[in-house]
Amino acid sequence: MSADRMPSSPAPRAVVTGASRGHGLALARFLAGAGYEVVVTARDSAALALARAEIAAVGRVSAVPGDVGDPAHRAALVERVGDRLDLLVHNASELGPSPLPALATADAAAFRAVLETNLVAPLALTQALLPALRRAGGLIAAVSSDAAQGAYPGWGLYGASKAALELLARTLAAEIGDVATVIVDPGDMRTPMHQLAFPGEDIGDRPLPEVTLPFWAWLIGQSRTAVTGGRFEAQADDWTLPVDTVAS
Ligand SMILES: NC(=O)c1ccc[n+]([C@@H]2O[C@H](COP(=O)([O-])OP(=O)(O)OC[C@H]3O[C@@H](n4cnc5c(N)ncnc54)[C@H](OP(=O)(O)O)[C@@H]3O)[C@@H](O)[C@H]2O)c1
User: Fold this and answer.
1) Range of the domain at 126
2) Residues 91-133: pLDDT tens digits?
3) Distance from the alpha carbon of residue 212 to the mean position of ligand 1, in angstroms
């Protein structure tokens, strides 16, 4: 789809950031196949074009290359989305240095870069797309990690960014009634980021990101009020078990 705006149609509309590979690509392809008009983004325009072609084989997709940390890129996304947005998935993420650094020697500039992509940009993009989300009574999903809670050695920069992202998501859920916000921990997946976290290791025993798709299929079918403020583990056995939910 090459138009600057998604066409006016009754199909639900989704933005998936970081959809050129890994979990974002699997999710965007799934959503397009489920009837969503999907807007995908990533920095590497060649990789994003390949992903766009793959997704276009199953449904409607529009690609906007750029960095979620760049205000001009976010403005281009707002323009492409148009008047309403049903689902915004903050999936794009920065792991930080590899091998993962201990906090005692972690670099401040690297920390700022992680925070910019994983924390500052998702809030700025949420703010920019909020009018369109409100028109649709939409859903925001912040993709987090068990590293947000685990205090795993080496994972401090990334984990701190995800912990703060989770607090932003919970606070949005408490502040905003007409748009739902959830936290999604996808669990370990065999992706380029996971390989970066375990350089030189065989990660072949981790599941492919498609393992999360039954969860996403369940989530998009839920009422917004039933899920807002919740933290979900996409590889859990039962997502309908009581979730950690903030009062709103
Ligand atoms: N893989 C796991 O085991 C695992 C576990 C727990 C949580 N997660 C979370 O799941 C999500 C997906 O992870 P993944 O493993 O699929 O990661 P991945 O393979 O590294 O893919 C990340 C995607 O985000 C894009 N991206 C990165 N920085 C960006 C930026 N500043 N602006 C726009 N796009 C950007 C990348 O493309 P470009 O580099 O071209 O921009 C790529 O499309 C992340 O939020 C991650 O934290 C992953």
Assistant:
1) 13-233
2) 999 999 999 999 999 999 999 999 999 999 999 999 999 999 9
3) 15
Give ∠ CA 119-219-177 in degrees, rounded to 5.
Answer: 65
CATH at residue 28: 3.40.50.720
- Residue 42 tokens, joined: 């990533």
Alpha helix segments (H runs only) across 10-85: 22-33, 45-56, 71-81
Closest ligand 1 atom to the C-alpha of 92? 24
Q: Which tokens is 132 given?
A: 């369109």
Catalytic member of 30, 36, 155, 158: 158
Q: Is residue 238 part of a domain?
A: no
Q: Is residue 243 part of a domain?
A: no
Residues 176-234: tens digit of each pLDDT: 999 999 999 999 999 999 999 999 999 999 999 999 999 999 999 999 999 999 999 99
Measured torsion, CA atoms of residues 184, 118, 66, 21, in degrees rounded to the nearest 10: -50
* Closest residue by Cα to residue 233 from 223, 222, 241: 241
Total tally of structural domains belonging to the chain: 1
Q: Does 162 score more than 80 pLDDT?
A: yes
Q: Is residue 244 part of a domain?
A: no
* Cβ of residue 161 lying under 6 Å from some atom of ligand 1: no
Predicted confidence at residue 240, as pLDDT, reads 72
Instruction: Give whole-number Cα distances, 230 to 14, 116, 146, 169, 210, in Å.
Output: 20, 24, 15, 9, 22
In this structure, is residue 177 part of a structural domain? Answer: yes
Q: If you measure from the C-alpha of residue 187 to the centroid of ligand 1, how many angstroms do you get, rounded to a whole number?
A: 13
Distance 118 CA to ligand 1 centre (A): 10
Amino acid at 21: R
Two tokens, residue 108: 């401040």
